[in-house]
Design goal:
binds 1-deoxynojirimycin; two-stranded antiparallel sheet; 448 residues; three-stranded antiparallel β-sheet
Length: 448
């Protein structure tokens, strides 16, 4: 059954569910008479998600500009500035700035970015064990020296993406000199944050690195996809600012990355695998099937036709991820609950505090919804409206799934217990809110 067929089937299911099971879907925050649809709920949560991200930025005991992965300090201790999580959250804030923000919120986002830029400038001048590939820092801006999976080379790439987007916002606002003084100058050795990260990424993308889950050392689809995007978007900025030689070099590296990315297609398995050349770390990832591939397609999406959403290999991978997680968690088996909770990878056992078994993750379930919304958008562009509508309704199911497990105050943790359906592991995970915002943004684009 193709994704579109399945989407059609689910499209009918959703109608059935709404008719037959209204109390199950009712969210306490909504009126009991007219419960919010999944899409309405999603849009209704964007303001809250934005606030929660800001709450996790520059907490009182941190250096301004530090972004904590979550407020919890034990079980699990996520009270660190993870370069990856911070960049993903800040990137989302710049999208929020351009789409949902009020003038007052825009001002706050400007302040948040100047703090983030200062914090970034500071940590890039330290000499941590993995240099610019260092994955996380203490919130006071000092290095975290305990043993950890290092380097994690998606981190500088994501940081460059978030800062490059902000540089584009500043350029549109006529603030070129701020960009040239705080973000990108044409000097070598690199002086300012974006160019430092681009130099690092362009010279190190071939090196082995730990994956985004911090577990496996090797070459990763996710890391390469975000490196490619960092380099191509960085090249565009470099060119605007007159750094033509650098632009050419970044583009050349990005093209080379593309050929390596295509090696991740596993013809016999029928999906893009997550990691190659694995040399260290978790050994149990037999299927090599991972939601990180979906995240790589999302965070690396350049809308330039490279691994487009209607590429059969992309669809096959999406399909396989959904199929694999469906039987894995008992909450996915329960009748009357919409959608499917998606985890990181099928062999996962990390539960936030120990290794008692993997669970669906909020950000992974949103990732599937967001990917399907983007696929629907692509189908619309190709005038396949009917298919697009089915895929959209299917995407709504994954949002409805998260809605179902979200308490009425809207708070999102990292994981959803596979049996009880309760939110668990790190509460108020910054990345979960960022995932809600980008999914809402993609759903909103479809309704325009
Ligand atoms: C903490 C990491 O952040 C998480 O991704 C990983 O699964 C656990 N450590 C176990 O290695
Ligand atoms: C564990 C996740 O696996 C990793 O990707 C993330 O950076 C950290 N938690 C912090 O949220």
């Amino acid at each position: 059954m193709t994704l579109v067929h399945r989407a059609r089937q689910y499209g009918f299911c959703i109608i059935f569910l709404f008719l037959s099971n209204l109390p199950v879907l009712t969210n306490a925050a909504s009126s009991p008479v007219t419960p919010l649809t999944a899409r309405e709920w999603l849009q209704s949560q964007t303001g809250f998600a934005y606030h929660q991200i800001l709450n996790n930025l520059s907490p009182a005991d941190a250096m301004p500009g530090a972004v904590i992965a979550a407020p919890s300090r034990h079980q699990p201790n996520y009270y660190y500035h993870w370069v990856r999580d911070a960049a993903i959250a800040m990137e989302t804030l710049s999208t929020y700035h351009d789409t949902f923000a009020t003038p007052q919120q825009k001002q706050l986002i400007h302040q948040s970015f100047s703090d983030y830029i200062m914090f970034t400038t500071h940590i890039q001048q330290l000499y941590p064990q993995a240099g610019l590939g260092e994955p996380k820092f203490n919130v006071d801006g000092s290095t975290f020296n305990d043993p950890w999976g290092r380097p994690q080379n998606d981190s500088p790439a994501l940081r460059a993406i978030s800062l490059t987007h902000w540089a584009q916002v500043l350029l549109r606002e006529g603030q070129e000199s701020v960009v040239r003084h705080t973000l990108y100058d044409c000097q070598l050795p690199a002086n300012l944050p974006i160019k430092k990260d681009l130099e690092y990424v362009s010279h190190h993308w071939q090196d082995p690195s730990f994956d985004l889950w911090e577990e496996v050392k090797g070459t990763h689809f996710y890391t390469l996809m975000v490196s490619r995007r960092a380099l191509l978007e960085g090249a565009q900025l470099a060119q605007t600012l007159g750094d033509d030689g650098a632009a050419q070099w970044y583009r050349l590296q990005a093209r080379q990355i593309e050929t390596v990315v295509l090696h991740f297609w596993d013809h016999s398995r029928g999906y893009f695998v997550a990691s190659l050349n694995v040399s260290e770390g978790t050994k149990n990832k037999i299927a090599n099937l991972d939601c990180s591939v979906i995240l790589g397609l999302l965070h690396g999406d350049m809308h330039d036709g490279f691994l487009a959403w209607d590429d059969p290999r992309v669809i096959a991978t999406l399909h396989k991820v959904i199929d694999t997680f469906t039987p894995l968690y008992s909450i996915n088996q329960r009748r009357g609950i919409p959608g499917i909770g998606i985890g990181r990878y099928p062999e996962d056992v990390y539960d936030g505090t120990g290794f008692q078994g993997g669970n669906p993750w909020v950000l992974c379930t949103f990732a599937v919804a967001e990917a399907l919304y983007r696929y629907a958008f692509t189908l619309n562009m190709h005038h396949q409206q009917q298919e697009a509508q089915s895929v959209e309704a299917y995407a709504d199911q994954f949002v409805a799934r998260i809605k179902y497990h979200t308490p009425s105050d809207g708070s999102l943790s990292e994981q959803i217990h596979r049996e009880t359906g309760a939110m668990m592991s790190a509460p108020d995970l910054t990345w979960s809110y960022a995932a809600l915002l980008t999914t809402a943004y993609e759903a909103g684009r479809l309704s325009q």
